[in-house]
Amino acid sequence: MDVRRVLLDSFRAAIDAADPLRIVAPALPDAAAIRRLRRTLAVGAGKAAASMALAVERHWPADAPLEGLVVTRYAHGLPCARIEVVEAGHPVPDEAGERAAARILERAGALGDDDLLIALVSGGGSSLLSLPVEPVPIVDLKAVTQALLASGAPIQDMNVVRKHLSRIQGGRLAQGTRARVLALMISDVAGDDPSSIASGPCSPDPSTYADALAILARWRIAAPASVREHLERGMRGELDETPKPGDPLFARVDARMLATAHGSLEAATAVFARAGIRPVVLGDTVTGEARDVAQVMGAIAREIVRHGQPFKRPVALISGGECTVTIRGRGRGGRCSEFLLALARELDGIPGTWAIAADTDGIDGVESNAGAIATPDTMRRAAAAGLDARALLDDNDAWTFFDALGDLVVTGPTRTNVNDFRALVLLPAQAA
């Protein structure tokens, strides 16, 4: 059995299950309903924004009005004819995203009651759709974003802060238009909370200014003065809160979840089943510090190998969710590669163990790889190559480790994003 090929095929199946070119069209109005619309504006943000926009264009009748603007990550664009595609900074926002978000809010505000706003929302949109409140310059939003990224804070916490620094997120895009809204979402967050996907531009926001300040304190973020002053004013009631659940404005919003991490994990199970490996989905909300999650996975693997509990081999343990990395070193590597390097150390000496960890958007952190693969002889090959796995892990340099072994998984941008994909395969000793 070519286990490497099985792992790569399972990852591809997970990506394909969230392919916008397959899943967007069924959620759009039919041709007759489209032709009754006076005006349709398609806007959006995220790593899947360009492919979602292209899917809308392909479905839309040529004689029906359609215009729009979406913003996606650099190198994630696609050529669209009727919807403008802008590329901007991720994971740290930049001025290109700020300008695009301002244009989106302005154009949405010009729509009337008989118009339709299609909001194409996917992971990465929190950074890409950055339109800070006027007292906070983009340079200060960049600074607080970078600090939160380095702190190891979960994405939900980061987005609470960003929503309360934004003129367009936290439901404010829906608040800023009179049109009916069709919000189509591809989830990259654990639990599929719409208010966290791209910081919920068309979703009610249950969080508060006080929550945002508490998060900065919890993660010991020394925020710029403009950020802290704005949040403190909000906490004192001097500023309007983000629109909350139950607000009548959301009666105009038809929100639909098109793809989730769990759906992609389920799609991957068929690949393992065909290979004669029992697939077990551990869940799509497996989160925590990457090396801590690896330690737990390693303990489960040892229990299976030594005692046949809770599963018999051959088995594939499949999980999703976004791990975090507290940056302490100066190396290269995203959360998937860091998880896998820590897992490889845990599995050292256990025969028949294979694993893959990769981000479904095709980019692990800020690197050019989606993730990496670990094999039964990863640590032996590393030692022969003179690689110090412990030192590289301590330096957050998992990319260098797997690059030297030729075990990086490189897909290029997939133009979708349903969070991370992980699979740990344990084979019987005779098959190892």
**Total helix count?**
17
Provide the spatial order of strands within the biggest beta sheet.
Answer: 3-2-1-4-5-6
CATH superfamily of the largest domain: Glycerate kinase, MOFRL-like N-terminal domain
Indicate the structural class: alpha/beta
Number of strands: 14
Write structural notes for this entry.
This protein has 432 residues and is of the alpha/beta class. Helices cover 39% and strands 18% of the residues. A six-stranded parallel sheet has the order 3-2-1-4-5-6, sandwiched between helices.
Quick overview:
The chain has helices spanning 3-16, 20-23, 31-35, 49-59, 95-109, 125-128, 138-151, 155-163, 172-175, 209-218, 225-235, 261-274, 290-307, 335-347, 378-384, 389-394, 398-405, and strands spanning 40-45, 67-73, 83-88, 116-122, 180-186, 253-259, 278-283, 288-289, 315-320, 323-324, 353-359, 371-374, 408-409, 420-426.
